Amino acid sequence: MSEIIKNIKEWEVMTPSGWNDFYGIKQIQKSSYIHIKCTGQKELKCSTNHNIKLHNGEWISASNLSIGDILVDGYEVNEIIEIFDDVELYDLLNVENGNEYYTNDILSHNCAFIEYIDEIWGASQQTLATGGKCI
């Protein structure tokens, strides 16, 4: 179950291009999460499929990170712990300028949320059935 808090106009989030607006926050219930610890006492608790940017510019899901990986801002991953416990996690929605934002000084990305996806997907089925493609 998730709850979306929409239209947060008085808040902004730090991004690589400065402070930017975002649409809202999505609260997500999970039965496990990943706790990442890096140099500089940087830490991030996130879902297993949360995207994090590496120093080479590639995005990687938290579950595919390895000890020793270097993140885009130079932090090195020192510890990765998967915790099996119920947790509430929060994702920012529709962050301006590419959905990239900093969480505890770690560059994250959330492209998993598309509002009204059920309606969009349903409306596209006739086109896809006749040979159309979807990416």
Topology, number of strands: 12
Which strand order do you get reading across the main beta sheet? 8-7-12-11
Structural class given helices, strands, pairing? mainly beta
The overall average pLDDT, rounded, is 84
The low-confidence runs, each spanning 5 or more residues with pLDDT under 50, are none
Tally of helical segments: 1
Main sheet overview: 4 strands, antiparallel
Structure, explained:
The model has no long low-confidence stretch (mean pLDDT 84). The chain is mostly beta strands and 135 residues long. The strands form 4 sheets. It has a 4-stranded antiparallel sheet, with no helix packed on it. The chain has a 3-stranded antiparallel sheet with strand order 1-4-10, with no helix packed on it. The chain is built from 1 helix and 12 strands. Helices cover 10% and strands 42% of the residues.
Topology:
Blueprint: E1 2-6, E2 13-15, E3 18-20, E4 24-30, E5 33-38, E6 42-46, E7 51-53, E8 59-61, E9 77-83, E10 87-93, E11 100-103, E12 106-109, H1 117-129
Antiparallel strand pairs: 1-4, 2-3, 4-10, 5-6, 5-9, 7-8, 7-12, 11-12
Summarize this structure as a short list of keywords or feature phrases.
mainly beta, four-stranded antiparallel sheet, 1 helix
What's the short version?
By secondary structure, the chain is mostly beta strands. It is built from 1 helix and 12 strands; from the N terminus they run ββββββββββββα.
